[in-house]
Amino acid sequence: MLKRVLVALCMGLVAVGLMAGAQSLVTPRNVGVLLFDNETGGAVSKLAITFDREVELDASDVIVFGGEAATLVAASNYFVWIQVVVDAGGTLQLAIPDPETVVVDAFWF
User: Fold this and answer.
1) pLDDT digits (tens, 9 = 90+) for 18-45
2) CB distance 46 to 82 below 8 Å
């Protein structure tokens, strides 16, 4: 019984480590809109962003160059989750209403 618990615990730790390693920090360029370049070396399917203030966004605020259209944009207070495929070397453009809004953190998944 103890052996099963230890094996399950080890498998859980490995899974958490793989998920943590799958995210990649991204720093956007600000040229009137935010540009997030995919420099991970592979396609990504999600982008998580934390801002310094509340934002309201929808799919029409997202344009992808080298990938597919956003299928989900969920904004809640300071956090935005975008489900979108961006190919390696592609760029996601995000138009935000307030130009003084600052990206605190952003991660590709």
Assistant:
1) 344 557 999 999 998 999 999 999 999 9
2) yes
Q: Which residue has the tokens 């600000």?
A: 30
- pTM equals 0.78
Question: Which band of pLDDT confidence, cut at 50, 70 and 90, is reported for residue 12?
Answer: very low
CA 6 to the chain's CA centroid: 33
- Whether 6 maps to a domain, the answer reads no
Q: Say which residue the tokens 């009137």 belong to.
A: 32
* Measured distance CA(57)–CA(59) in Å, rounded: 7
Total number of domains in the chain: 1
Q: How far is CA 55 from CA 15, 23, 33, 109, in A?
A: 32, 23, 14, 21
Q: Judge whether 5 lies within some domain.
A: no
